[in-house]
Amino acid sequence: MKDLSIKKLYYSISEVSKITEVEQYVLRYWETEFEQLKPQKNRAGNRIYTNKDIQTILLIKNLLREKKYTIEGAKNILATDVPTEESFQEEIEFGRNDKGMNKTTSKREKPSLKKDLEEIKNVLENIKSYLT
What we know:
The chain is mainly alpha-helical. It has a domain at 13-104: Multidrug-efflux Transporter Regulator, Chain: A, Domain 2. Helix content is 61%, strand content 3%. It has helices spanning 13-20, 24-33, 51-66, 71-80, 85-97, 109-131; strands spanning 40-41, 47-48. The chain has a two-stranded antiparallel ribbon. A hairpin with a 5-residue loop joins strand 1 (40-41) and strand 2. Helix 3 runs parallel beside helix 5 (85-97). It starts with 12 loop residues before the first helix and ends with a helix.
């Protein structure tokens, strides 16, 4: 992942692809799947991404590729938690700490995990009642 130390107002899709290390065709596909990712277009019709768009892309990338969420799962997380710079940093930090589990986790992780486990439990109970 490249450093965003040089701040610009807008980035082209090729610049965003290099910064995020996500292929351009994947970025276009994610635009169709995630309503939070809607870059504007300039007069020529080219996509122009803001820093917020890049943060959203990095969060989506983290959810899909590092945490192994499905697209639907990532959509649910993004729908309940609009990415901010703070939440983005928490997601990245949690992703880094995910393997070791010896560092402190983010404040959002525990309630989210509990909610996810409750949903899984409900689904399993429904399946069980259907089978019996």
